[in-house]
Amino acid sequence: MKTNIVLSIALMLCASTNMQAQNHAESKHENIVTNMIDNPMLWADVPDPDIIRVGDTFYLVSTTMHLMPGAPIMKSKDLKNWETVGYIFDKLTDSPKYDLSPTEGTVYGRGQWATSLKYHKGKFYALLAPNEAGAMGDTYIFTADKAEGPWKQVSRMRHFHDCSLFFDDDDRVYVVYGTGEMMELKQDLSDVIEGTHRQIFKREADETGLLEGSRMIKHNGKYYLLMISHVYAPGRHRREVCYRADNIQGPYEKATILQSEFGGFSYEAQGTIVDTQDGDWYGIIFQDRGGVGRVLTVMPCRWIDGWPMLGDEEGRVPDRVRALKNGEPETAIVKADDFSKDKLGLHWQWNHNPVDKAWSLTERPGFLRLKTARVVPNLYLAPNTLTQRMEGPKCTGAVVLDLSKMKDGDVAGLAAFNDHSAVMAVKKVSKKLTLELSDQQVRLSQREKKVENVEVKVIETVALQQLKQQKLWLRIDANFVPRTDIATFSYSLDGKEWTKIGGEFRMGFDWQRFFMGTKFGIFNYATKKVGGYVDVDEFTYNKHQ
């Protein structure tokens, strides 16, 4: 009898232990399954990526062209949760175009392009070349002790298009650019070494289209140059190709490492690969997605016969990828803001160089004050338009504006800002305030990007006689569900009851003008005289399905 009792207890303990182990395993499995990265990894405008790993942290840089500060540095420990931690430069100042000059031109769609990010012997390095002709297009090299900055300019030199900085194991330094061109740099990075130009491979006969976006890495003693290839012909698709060699000077052989459409959009290409501390590899590649811009996807990178093959086992971009680790805090690159800090959040960027004396977070604590800086004819020449990315699949952004200090002729509000914008603007004429929703398209000169004309179509106008305390709420709802790209607009007199204004606005993407996804844009400008201002109480933001 005693033996039976002991046996029963033992069986019960064994069953309990097995149940606990099973529950733990199921819980662990559930945690792994739920901690997934849904592609796009960053469903926002984050083109031309370069990504490196230092220790357990990944650092990513992207193109933001005419937005300032420029060349954002984002970081993550799991490839899922990203946040902006710094910028390589605050302003570019070698031309009045960076200040939205009505006579000299602008840098819409130009500015900082395709920055190369590296880490070498305890320091971070960044190389970028503005997409400009002449001295404006000269290449910059920056360095920093921390990716967060501050960054210091090391040198400027001739223009290198879509280039990759590369430090070899013997400490020799190269820049690879264009279509298979390379030059060696001096050890102090002050300039190129004259006479070192090489064409390290020749374009193949069938490569008759785009072949650029250089990203050079070294793995197991071999050199790998990743590039975007796109032949504009029937049956040919955008793809990522790789050139590899045993010697940096060549000869190089080539393979296609990714040719995959994804999510109902076009084929993907341009990006790079990065390893983890555990020795796994991932590809980070962007995809054109219409109105939201160029988004980032993440995928496995498998070394097959010495080639970094991207995608799943079938070579396709996967819908989901498991995050590298659990328990990382949730972070984002687009954020709400109550403007309670005395420094502007790193999630914001100005349209061109800001006029620093015309904005403040301290004159009225808890508010962003936007002052009129100069008299301009339209939004596209207005300084100090403050922007953030939009995100998919859907997002909502709203502002609260104190309009009590606007002057006659001032225009303030919130826009779905791009070369083709939808603009919710409060206009003050004499002592009356009117809310107007308009469709606005800018025409830019081809070379100097001068604002030649802005076509404005007024959609709806609302008189604001009932406005209490001169306070108004404005909201944009954006829908980037595939093949949608629709924005709708609302206003409120109390922040509770919302009224729609206008209908649906279709957001677009034009590589010949802004070459950028649509942004939230908060603005205030003068059309008659300066001296007025608006106070932005807060920017609320939500990303949703």
From TrEMBL:
Residues 337-542 form the Beta-xylosidase C-terminal Concanavalin A-like domain. Keywords: Glycosidase, Hydrolase, Signal. GO terms for molecular function: hydrolase activity, hydrolyzing O-glycosyl compounds. The record marks 162 as: Important for catalytic activity, responsible for pKa modulation of the active site Glu and correct orientation of both the proton donor and substrate. The keyword Acetylation does not apply. One of its GO terms (biological process) is carbohydrate metabolic process. Pfam families: GH43_C2, Glyco_hydro_43. Coiled coil: none annotated. It comes from the Bacteria. The active site is at residues 48, 212. Residues 1-21 form the signal peptide. Belongs to the glycosyl hydrolase 43 family. PANTHER family: BETA-XYLOSIDASE, HYDROLASE, PUTATIVE (AFU_ORTHOLOGUE AFUA_2G00930)-RELATED. This is Beta-xylosidase. It comes from Xylanibacter ruminicola. The lineage of its organism: Bacteria, Pseudomonadati, Bacteroidota, Bacteroidia, Bacteroidales.
